[in-house]
Amino acid sequence: MNPPSSPMVSTVANSSLTGLPLRHDDPVSFSLILKVLLITTLLLVVTYVILRWYARRNNPDNELLRSEAVSLRCLAALRLSTRTKVYLLKAGDSEVMITETPSGVHVTRLFKKQENISDKQSDNQERIKK
């Protein structure tokens, strides 16, 4: 005796392999999938634009980089080992040290040592005493 067939369930020749009949009234429609993908894409684009704007707004050197072209001049190049190199560059009015290692590149901005005002005053006082 065969069970009565429902219009919602259809059997396939290989349904005995899977054990599950195929359904024709799938509740998740193709248009719903497209809507979800579209909304997800729009949210990702909005997030990307906000992050780019935030990064540009909080970068103080951004205006400096856009306003003037800085020429780089190599002052010294050292090979510390077979895998480590150090470069000293003059960029505009400041010096930059670039260290190249197998784990990556590190850029360090070097600042000129400024004399303290108190040191100058003590030097002047010593000269006056002599």
Describe the structure.
Strand 5 and strand 6 (104-110) form a beta hairpin. The relative contact order is 0.06. Helix content is 39%, strand content 26%. Among the domains are: 9-57; 70-110. It is of the alpha+beta class. It has helices at residues 15-18, 30-57, 62-67, 117-129, and strands spanning 9-10, 22-23, 72-79, 85-91, 94-101, 104-110.
- The proportion of strand residues reads 25-35%
According to DSSP, the number of beta strands is 6
Q: Outline the low-pLDDT stretches.
A: 8-15
Q: Rounded to an integer, what's the Rg over CA atoms?
A: 35 Å
* Major beta sheet, strand line-up: 3-4-5-6
Class from helix and strand fractions: alpha+beta
**Span from first to last CA?**
124 Å
Major beta-sheet overview: 4 strands, antiparallel
H/E element sequence: EHEHHEEEEH
Mean pLDDT: 75
